[in-house]
């Protein structure tokens, strides 16, 4: 408790309830503990975790501790930390540097405090730890064995570093694993985004026009679940292939300038900046609701909105209302930060069980192969993906067929 920076240690009991509830629905992490707990492959290593700090993340941290690591945890977004969970981790002898709702400057102080613990291995979500180790805190980078990156935005940043020849240690692109992006990005983001919107606004989705910006795996999940809730879905894209895919999936496709005139609810999921600009906002209907499901709060131009709006006020907890110069009002959820975490509990537990299992196993892989890995971005080894899928199926009581030797031979042959 001497190092940790948290809001209130007395909250630990409520946080522990959340952690224990999540643990019941995380059979893959439990299986990893059973298989690797006695071997303790991370013994003596200092591991820094910068992931949205809530109950599922806490179970990942506790697993790494059980595998022998000294674990130091911070958040990966100023509004996604749950203070009671942070307190519970400190109660379980894990150092935490995170408080919900801090300013961006203080958030980066917490990231630095996490790294100032002779860190050997990082688990990043969005690339902020990696960014610091390549900029302000390069003095701490030489000790790093390697690490893992959770999300699309972070992998993009890693690829840029690699392309420029500046990446200082090997990183595993966890986001690119099949058992991550097929389920976490699509199903997890789809469900949790609407959880955040509906619990925050308490409005009907059926019959409304929902504009989804970005039709990657996250956007597909958001659009599909909006459709299931009875919404009329419009997709905005810059990629012609994804635009055709959205069209053939049954959605309207158009430019943001046109979609702005029709939408009731706008959701960004692109990983890019200024997707919804003030010029778009001026075109929106009175009462339009805006939110973001991308990692950083740059997809909606909140800075210009704050500057040019006639009035800004708190319309409801986690919702700000803006009166525009044309007299219309629009509403922004969670300051344009990740709506599924800033206004809800993030992805469903079972989804994050798969993603965090890949994080844990990839971390072990980095340590065991430290002498072989170069300063590059690596995909998750296929055997890790398959292990996670097989354990997940077993936990569901599902059995699948296996190829016979004859079938394997047939599939490997060029002959008829």
Automatic annotation (TrEMBL):
CDD domains: SAHH
Pfam families associated with the record: AdoHcyase (PF05221), AdoHcyase_NAD (PF00670)
Pathway: Amino-acid biosynthesis; L-homocysteine biosynthesis; L-homocysteine from S-adenosyl-L-homocysteine: step 1/1
Keyword set includes NAD: yes
Cofactor note: Binds 1 NAD(+) per subunit.
Taxonomy, superkingdom: Bacteria
InterPro entries, alphabetized: Adenosylhomocyst_ase-like_sf (IPR042172), Adenosylhomocysteinase-like (IPR000043), Ado_hCys_hydrolase_NAD-bd (IPR015878), NAD(P)-bd_dom_sf (IPR036291), S-Ado-L-homoCys_hydrolase_CS (IPR020082)
UniProt keywords, alphabetically: Cytoplasm, Hydrolase, NAD, One-carbon metabolism
Domain S-adenosyl-L-homocysteine hydrolase NAD binding span(s) in chain numbering: 185-346
Record field: catalytic activity: S-adenosyl-L-homocysteine + H2O = L-homocysteine + adenosine
Cellular component GO terms, alphabetical: cytosol
Molecular function as annotated in GO: adenosylhomocysteinase activity
GO biological process: L-homocysteine biosynthetic process; one-carbon metabolic process; S-adenosylmethionine cycle
Major location (coarse): cytoplasm
Cofactor(s), by name: NAD(+)
Positions with a binding annotation for NAD(+): 151-153, 185, 214-221, 237, 293-295, 340, 347
Record-listed E.C. numbers: 3.13.2.1
Broad EC category: hydrolase
HAMAP family in the record: AdoHcyase
Family under the similarity heading: Belongs to the adenosylhomocysteinase family.
Biological role stated in the UniProt entry: May play a key role in the regulation of the intracellular concentration of adenosylhomocysteine.
Protein name (record): Adenosylhomocysteinase
Gene source species: Caldicellulosiruptor owensensis (strain ATCC 700167 / DSM 13100 / OL)
Name of the gene: ahcY
């Amino acid at each position: 408790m001497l190092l940790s920076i948290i809001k209130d240690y007395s909250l630990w009991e409520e946080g522990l309830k959340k952690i224990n509830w999540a643990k019941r629905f995380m059979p893959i992490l439990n299986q990893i503990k059973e298989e690797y707990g006695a071997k303790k492959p991370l013994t003596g290593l200092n591991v820094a975790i910068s992931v949205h700090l809530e109950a599922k993340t806490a179970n990942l941290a506790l697993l790494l501790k059980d595998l022998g690591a000294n674990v130091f945890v911070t958040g990966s977004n100023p509004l996604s930390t749950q203070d009671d969970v942070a307190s519970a981790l400190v109660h379980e002898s894990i150092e935490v540097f995170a408080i919900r709702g801090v300013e961006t400057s203080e958030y980066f102080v917490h990231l630095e405090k996490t790294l100032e613990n002779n860190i050997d291995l990082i688990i990043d979500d969005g690339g902020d730890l990696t960014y610091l180790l390549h900029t302000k805190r390069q003095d701490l980078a030489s000790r790093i064995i390697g690490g893992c990156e959770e999300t699309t935005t972070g992998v993009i940043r890693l690829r840029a570093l690699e392309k420029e020849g500046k990446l200082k240690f090997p990183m595993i692109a966890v986001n690119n694993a099949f058992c991550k992006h097929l389920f976490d990005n699509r199903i997890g983001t789809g469900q949790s985004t609407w959880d955040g919107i509906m619990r925050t606004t308490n409005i009907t989705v059926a019959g409304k026009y929902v504009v989804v910006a970005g039709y990657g795996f996250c956007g597909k999940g958001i659009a599909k679940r909006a459709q299931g809730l009875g919404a009329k879905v419009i997709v905005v894209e810059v990629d012609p292939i994804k635009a055709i895919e959205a069209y053939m999936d049954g959605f309207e496709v158009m430019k943001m300038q046109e979609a702005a005139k029709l939408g009731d609810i706008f959701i960004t999921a692109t990983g890019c900046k200024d997707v919804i600009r003030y010029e778009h906002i001026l075109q929106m209907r009175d009462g339009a609701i805006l939110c973001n499901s991308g990692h950083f709060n740059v997809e909606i131009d909140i800075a210009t909105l704050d500057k040019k709006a006639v009035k800004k006020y708190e319309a409801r907890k986690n919702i700000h209302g803006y009166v525009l110069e044309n007299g219309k009002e629009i509403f922004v959820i969670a300051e344009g930060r990740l709506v599924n975490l800033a206004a809800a509990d993030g992805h469903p537990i079972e989804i994050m069980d798969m993603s965090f299992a890949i994080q844990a196993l990839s971390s072990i892989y980095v340590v065991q192969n430290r002498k072989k890995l170069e300063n590059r971005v690596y995909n998750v080894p296929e055997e890790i993906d398959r292990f996670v899928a097989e354990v997940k199926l077993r936990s569901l009581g599902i059995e699948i067929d296996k190829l016979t030797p004859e079938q394997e031979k047939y599939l490997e042959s060029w002959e008829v």
